[in-house]
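Workshop exercise sheet. Pairs work together: one partner reads the sequence aloud, the other fills in the structure field after running the prediction. Swap roles for the next sheet.
Pair: D.N. / O.F.
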Amino acid sequence: TTRSVHVEFDTNLRNMPWKFRSLAEATDVHPGAVTQAMFEVVNNADHPVTGQAIPSYGPQRAAQFFRKLDCFCFSKQTLAAGEKRDMPVVFVVDPKLPKDLSTITLSYTFFEVEGNGKP
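Structure field:
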């Protein structure tokens, strides 16, 4: 049988006027298979806001087996006032993942950062 790993998504904001959520709470993935997950952000402020997402993993040792091929966390995200954006994460779970790791939590926290438009 092909093994699957349960990947849960957790979203957090640190002092930001955004809404941030994963479009799926979790997904079951086969190690080695390329998987895409979608996240949604909405800027509730009346001015542009720039954020940077920082990923973390639970359990922490799962991080070395989690390879992000494409991620909104690789660059700053600037949203105009009221803008809504769907953002993908494309990842692969390494087939070398230990058998006792059956669930991985991928957590993102958005922090506000200086945007390119500010002096």
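Discussion prompt: The longest strand covers residues 5-14. What would you look at next?
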